[in-house]
Amino acid sequence: MENPYIMMIVALAILAIADLVVGVSNDAVNFLNSAIGSKAISFRTIMIVASLGVAFGAVFSSGMMEVARKGIFVPSEFYFNEIMIIFMAVMITDILLLDFFNTLGMPTSTTVSIVFELLGAAVAMALIKMAADGDSASTLSTYINTDKATEIILGILLSVVVAFSIGAVVQYFSRLLLSFNFERKAKWVGAVFGGVALTAITYFIFIKGLKGTDYYSEIEHLIEGKTVVIILLSFILWSFLSFVFVQFLKKNIYKLIIIVGTFALALAFAGNDLVNFIGVPIAAWQSYQAWVDPLININGLEATEFSMGILGKKVATPTFMLLGAGLIMVLTLWFSSKAKGVVKTSLDLSSQGETQERFNPNFISRGLVRASIMISKYTNSVIPNSMQDRIEKQFEKPVIKLVKGKEHELPAFDMVRAAVNLMVASVLISLATSMKLPLSTTYVTFMVAMGTSLADRAWGSESAVYRVAGVLNVIGGWFGTAISAFIAAGTIAYLIHLGGITMIAILLLVAVLLLTRNYIKHIKKGREIKAEDSLSKAESNSIHGVIEESADNISKALKRISKINKSTIDGLINEDLSSLKKAKSTVIKLENEIEGLQNNMFYFIKNLDDSYLGASKFYIDVIGNLQDMAQSASFISKVSHKHINNNHRPLKKKQADELIEINDQLVSLFDKTREVFDSRSFEKIVPDLINDKQALLDHVENAIHQQVERTRTIESSPKNTTLYFSILLETKDLIKAGITILELYYSEHDRNVNLMNAES
Predict the structure, then answer these.
(1) Per-residue pLDDT tens for 343-400?
(2) What does the domain layout of the chain look like in residue ranges?
(3) 392: which residues sit within 8 A by CB, 6+ positions away?
(4) Which of 73, 216, 512, 547 is least enclosed, having the fewest CB within 10 Å?
(5) Residues 28-52 pLDDT 10s
(6) Domain spanning 543-759: which superfamily?
């Protein structure tokens, strides 16, 4: 009987390590975002500070482990074998669910996952026991710790509203006090802000945070009943040190707050979230120890008879396990490629400047923005104009002179907002940790960042609907996580109950295969991104530089459009739906990149020297025609995919042959064009390439004429006719846009040659 459970313990330990790696890779952004977004300190310093915070937080997380043992279900109502099924179902589900959401690119929370997995598996096992005993549904409450579970779930949901509201309020008053010109304020203003921020961080981290650990009893007599005195003395001390830091050491107090805040948030993250990764395996290991211990299992009861009431008692987590978990988290933080990612959803949604919006607006986001505008107008009508003017002055953003070609190095937001993000998030998470509530660090850090963004007026009229839509999408993903975790864990628990150790082996094999597939896919995707011909934003401030940079983009775009067109035509003729689907998604990515180039046009024009303003028209025309080509390729892929997806008649042989011939000529022409652009031999454009493109255009016109004749005589399929004409007409537009680009480049090349001849 022991061997199967030993195998389960080993499997849970391996799953815990995998969960630590995957979880930290996904959640590291929670405590790195503010420091990275503000660019206040170097990335290396951020990582060192965060690593120290994670290491300390892991050691202080022992008290949180009780959530896995007794926070969701009543352990005394389950036997050892049932508890092991619950724990095994939870860990397998956690790996599979995280893999699933990562594959979809959906946001997820490890805290919500583990809570609802425990709830789902425990409910499933309780229902199995109730069915066997013939109990009614009302007895479910005897198995589930409904009060604590409700408290945890409500705490997680409430954290969304509380984090957003508090973040917005604190940021608003911080900006009123400091304005955007905070570095020019009097030294005492920064010292007071530093005193408040550092007092809040240190009090909740080092005092309230310690309350949930085994070490608190040793210092309890120094803290209990002295809250006001401790806070007051801390404020005086930190304010004085902040003033010395600013006045005499001539250092930036906001950088110090960001460093301390990053450490604090990393500590809070590890202290609160470590239970998500190793809480269940540790509880399973302690359950096994209790079952095999003759001093506890005095009568030598079988696994199906041994009640797990011992999990309801306070059991200390071995320090070596916490240290080991902390070490894995720190190593993951440094070496995981996912953890090193800088461009994250919350940075995009909270950026002070204009960014390429990642989400499409919807009717809810539009409605919320309109309602906010109406409320703002009503509020302004009540507040006196003089007060409004003073408030507006504090929110005036300083004009930042763009350094030539360096606009992408601007921070997403300033150090005041970064400091508030860290201060508010770390306080909220630490407060929840002291109350032994597994608050979602993802929810708190994200919603605090969104609240401070709103208060800081980062969501302007040009971005509000997109960013509100993004927030709604993320929140929707959270609810999806909860529902999926509950159902999946319950289902897996039931399957393990039916299949026993064989089913566990099958499920573990599936988990390993999925994780391996995900890893290979991630590596492959990374290689594809490196090898991919991505389009580059123009940073030159001269017409010659723009020609050089955009020539590379034209060559890359032609290569990708050529591949997309070939995949589309081949997929259409062979009725290969997967090939058509891939072509459709690939062309969407190309369109998004071209849209990114258009969004960068504002900064490009700002960056131009006065003597080279003609480069702007050239660049605008090139990007416009490039977009026309991508749109034509997109339309062809969409109509082809729709035709095959709806199971319409395949193309006639004559139509297929004509399309293959046209596409082969198009690919050949694109290859020649790319050679010209790669070698910058623009003199070859006229007459060679222009004539070749015109010949291809005539060929397409001839194909259209032949299809008209077939339609009048032998064609019997309206759908086929519509599709064929659509492809030919869009191919014409694609070729015409290509001709226009060639003429633009040749014209500019010819002008430069004439200028050089005139100068010589």
Answers:
(1) 344 455 555 555 555 556 666 767 766 777 677 777 777 778 888 788 888 777 665 5
(2) 4-526, 543-759
(3) none
(4) 512
(5) 666 777 777 777 778 788 888 888 8
(6) Phosphate transport system protein phou homolog 2; domain 2 (1.20.58.220)
